[in-house]
Specification:
- The complex is a heterodimer.
- Chain A is an alpha/beta fold.
- Chain A contains 20 helices and 22 strands.
- In chain A, the strands form six sheets. A seven-stranded mixed sheet of chain A has the order 3-2-4-5-7-6-12, with helices on both faces. A five-stranded parallel sheet of chain A has the order 14-15-16-18-17, sandwiched between helices. Chain A has a four-stranded mixed sheet with strand order 9-11-10-13, sandwiched between helices.
- In chain A, helix 1 crosses helix 6 and helix 3 runs parallel beside helix 4.
- By secondary structure, chain B is of the alpha/beta class.
- In chain B, helix 1 crosses helix 7, helix 5 packs across helix 6 and helix 6 packs across helix 8.
- The chains are: A alpha/beta, B alpha/beta.
- At the A-B interface, strand 8, helix 10, helix 13 and strand 20 of A face helix 1, strand 2, helix 2, strand 5 and helix 3 of B.
- Strand 8 of chain A pairs antiparallel with strand 2 of chain B.
- The structure holds thiamine diphosphate.
Chain lengths: 593, 192
């Protein structure tokens, strides 16, 4: 049976075929669809964890209990999960454990483009890198086997182009006959106190040396000898680009990128006249090849920043004289036409919009966080001043108020989404209250993890497998952290939003404001309800443009209407949130009759 | 089968149904016995931003993204986005574009007008342009929301793949209750 699968769908399939029992993740582009697909296999217990650290720990427990386990995350998620990862490297596994890191060269949907191959080297665990969907499936299966064979967690690294590209995959069956999970005590291996860890560390060193030696004969590292005048060491999607651009070049295609198969690299280097490494981001392979005393070209001609593409690779090789200059890259037929940009925008009826409008009006200094609401940074709302990583808004606000003059402290507001607050924001609030920082925190509770495609979270009331469950009570949670001033607001009520924000900003103590309207994208029955559609009464519209200040995609300025133009509301897009009506001083906006 | 790889680009605005159209294309090519790869970026682009999907088929396809300047067909769901992606097309590449303008934020806010004369600008570089009134034809087929399928029909006419594979892919990918209308829309597009 053959199917067209994305890399992420293929990884889920690979986990299924490998007999994986538990899959746990926190969503993050481009990794999210892996768990959204494992959940379709009833043999796999799939769940969203509140953050990546917990996701990996759940997988660790499942492995220790004797089952094969998968944890998946985006590249920055591994920063959060790094603490358990580094010691898991020492304990090793019981059931096979695979950690998927989905990297994002070019930062299509991320705040940085860190190269997580470095984590494999740092934590001393093997890392596999598939180059299409078939390999995503096959390498996932293989990763589970290697994990048990070498008693190590195995990392599987994709990039956006692997996770989100589709290609044809031959499906297989689920393996049978794996040992049944059961409790087995083995404290010397699993309790990492110094005495035990000192025994484990040499085993880790020995393991990585053994893997490097065995890698030379593993089928996933493939020496393809074609034209001996040029040899290219590559892996992942870059292998495909190299085959596209230089079909005659010899290639050493690495499926295991850490540890590198030194013997195979030496063999390849000896067979080709000129050696290159083509890799995205850091000179990870290149530096190690150089350390082996082998001359190789890499980041001296290729960029470190951004992703590679066939076109970019072609240009570099043309400049290096490998490709005739006239074949460098086809000249575009038309020069790029200057066009208005089309950036992403908050949806019509998004409950975040009114809050940012009010923050802008109050001239707040907003320490932001990551989610759909980060779009509050863009004009016309323009109400976000910092954004570092998930959960950072609160600690940042606490730090800012420690240094700025007293009269500026009441301007500082931290803004965070529900999923992000539960991910790593709780500790920030604990600190803000504990150390009495006079900042204001706004929790934008839209009931869902919207940014990554509306996944449920511990406040949504449902699990990934769609079972009803507890839904976190935010006011109660904040109270238990010691919060004294906790208020809930309707973010569609601009007057209330502004007044409460102003009062809490002025309060020289920590305070929390929680919004209570759901995301318009929540599909579950009864959570989001579309209201009556609004229209502009053209006779009353004075062309003041006040309604444009919220940047709602449903409101359009029709410059041809009347002498100075008039606003128009698209009835197909309007959700009836009522925010624009409150901005109109002339009562020109009302419900359609 | 020749070694030639055919490169198709689907471009438009997040939420326009580009992903489904590119899945139907890919399915068709697989059914017709080709190797297929497709790629697009999701994530931020779902929030009404520009979307570009790459679909490639042939005997053996390596890169999942179309090399710059090698696109054979640009399948545009919206005029401005079609113009934005013209540099991806090869010399003599074909354009099939929906006659639809979706205002970006700066235009919605009245800061600048939606650019004019886009079809002429496309024609200046690429004479082989088919401008389709997708909504109108889809309405004729029974549902204005089947505009994408009309366009798909028009694109299918420009590719050398037997009709049976298109119909089989449509039947597999389109929800049962919408199939009749979509089939009609597809066949209308195929006449263009
Ligand atoms: C460590 C880490 N994990 C995951 C992500 C991906 N990510 C970005 S925002 C976000 C969640 C946003 O949800 P929420 O805070 O509820 O805000 P909303 O998008 O619903 O407004 C996620 C998972 C990330 N950037 N960093």
């Amino acid at each position: 049976m053959k199917e067209i699968l994305s890399g992420n769908e293929a990884i889920a399939r690979g986990a299924f075929e490998a007999g994986c029992r538990v899959a746990c993740a926190y969503p993050g582009t481009p990794s999210t669809e892996i768990l959204e697909n494992t959940v379709n296999y009833k043999e796999i217990d799939s769940s969203w964890a509140p953050n990546e650290k917990v996701a990996l720990e759940v997988a660790i427990g499942a492995s220790f209990g004797g089952g094969r386990a998968l944890a998946t995350m985006k590249h920055v998620g591994v920063n959060v999960a790094a603490d358990p990862l580094f010691t898991l490297s020492y304990t090793g596994v019981n059931g096979g454990l695979v950690l998927v890191t989905a990297d994002d060269p070019e930062m299509h949907s991320s705040q940085n483009e860190q190269d997580n191959r470095n984590y494999a080297k740092f934590a001393k665990v093997p890392l596999l890198e598939p180059s299409d969907s078939q390999e995503c499936k096959d390498f996932t299966r293989l990763a589970f086997e290697l994990s048990e064979q070498y008693d190590t967690p195995v990392m599987l690294r994709t990039t956006t182009r692997i996770s989100h590209s589709k290609s044809i995959v031959a499906l297989g069956d689920r393996v049978t006959g794996l040992p049944e999970p059961k409790l087995v005590k083995n404290a010397a291996k699993l309790v990492m106190l110094p005495g035990n860890a000192r025994v484990r560390h040499p085993l880790v060193e020995e393991r990585i040396v053994r893997l490097g030696a065995d890698g030379a004969t593993m089928a996933l590292n493939r020496l393809e000898l074609r034209d001996p005048s040029i040899g290219i060491i590559t892996s992942g999607v870059c292998y495909q680009y190299v085959r596209e651009v230089l079909p005659h070049a010899s290639t050493l295609k690495l499926g295991m990128v850490h540890p590198l198969p030194a013997a195979l690299i030496r063999e390849f280097a000896a067979k080709v006249a000129k050696l290159y490494v083509v890799e995205e981001l850091d000179p990870f392979i290149e530096e190690q090849v150089k350390a082996m005393g082998i001359a190789v070209a890499g980041k001296d001609i290729f960029p470190i920043c951004g992703e590679l593409t066939p076109g970019r690779i072609r240009q570099v090789f043309a400049k290096a004289g490998v490709i005739p200059a006239d074949q460098a890259a086809p000249q575009p037929e038309t020069a790029a036409i200057p066009l208005p940009p089309r950036p992403p925008n908050m949806c019509p009826g998004c409950p975040h919009r009114g809050v940012f409008y009010a923050l802008n009006q109050l001239k707040a200094y907003v320490t932001g966080d990551i989610g759909c609401y980060t779009l509050g940074f863009m004009p016309p709302l323009s109400a976000m001043d910092t954004c570092i990583c998930m959960g950072a808004s609160i600690g940042t606000a606490t730090g800012v108020v420690k240094v700025v003059p007293e009269e500026e402290r009441n301007k500082v507001v931290a803004v965070i989404g529900d999923s992000t607050f539960l991910h790593t924001g709780i500790n920030g609030l604990m600190d803000m209250v504990y150390n009495n920082a006079p900042a204001t925190l706004v929790i934008l509770d839209n009931r869902i993890t919207a940014m990554t495609g509306r996944q449920d979270n511990p406040a949504s009331g449902f699990t990934l497998m769609n079972d009803p469950t507890n839904s976190i009570d935010f006011p109660l949670l904040c109270k238990s952290l010691g919060g004294k001033h906790i208020r809930t607001i309707n973010p569609f009520d601009l007057e209330q939003t502004r007044t409460v924000l102003q009062e809490e900003m002025n309060r020289p103590e920590p305070s929390v404001i929680i919004t209570n309207k759901p995301c318009v994208l929540v599909k579950r029955e009864g959570v989001f309800q579309k209201g009556p559609v609004y229209t502009v009464e053209a006779e009353k519209c004075t062309s003041c443009r006040a309604c444009l200040k919220i940047g709602c995609p449903a409101i359009e300025w029709r410059s041809g209407a009347g002498a100075k133009g008039k606003a128009y509301i698209d009835p197909l897009l309007c959700t009836g949130c009522d925010v624009c009506r409150q901005l109109c001083k002339f009562d020109a906006i009302g419900r359609s009759k | 089968m020749s070694d030639q790889v055919t490169n198709i680009l689907l471009v438009g605005v997040g939420g326009q149904g580009i992903l489904l159209a590119s899945e139907i294309l890919s399915e068709t090519f697989m059914l017709a016995g080709f190797d297929v790869k497709k790629s697009e970026i999701h994530g931020m682009s779902q929030r009404g931003g520009s979307v570009v999907s790459h679909v490639r088929y042939g005997k053996e396809v390596f890169s999942p993204i179309v090399p710059e300047g090698e696109g054979d067909i640009l399948f545009g769901f919206e005029l401005m986005e079609t113009c934005r992606s013209l540099p991806l097309l090869k010399k003599g590449g074909k354009v099939v574009v929906n006659d639809l303008c979706i205002a970006p934020p700066s235009v919605l806010m009245g800061q600048e007008p939606y650019p004019e004369g886009l079809v002429d600008r496309i024609r200046a570089g690429f004479p082989d342009v088919l401008l389709v009134d997708g909504q109108q034809l889809a309405t004729e087929a029974g549902n204005p929301r089947a505009a994408n399928t009309v366009l798909l029909g028009a694109v299918s006419k420009r590719l050398d793949i037997a009709e049976e594979f298109w119909l089989a892919a449509l039947e597999k990918m389109v929800p049962k209750k919408a199939f009749a209308v979509n089939l009609k829309a597809f066949l209308l597009g195929r006449e263009l």
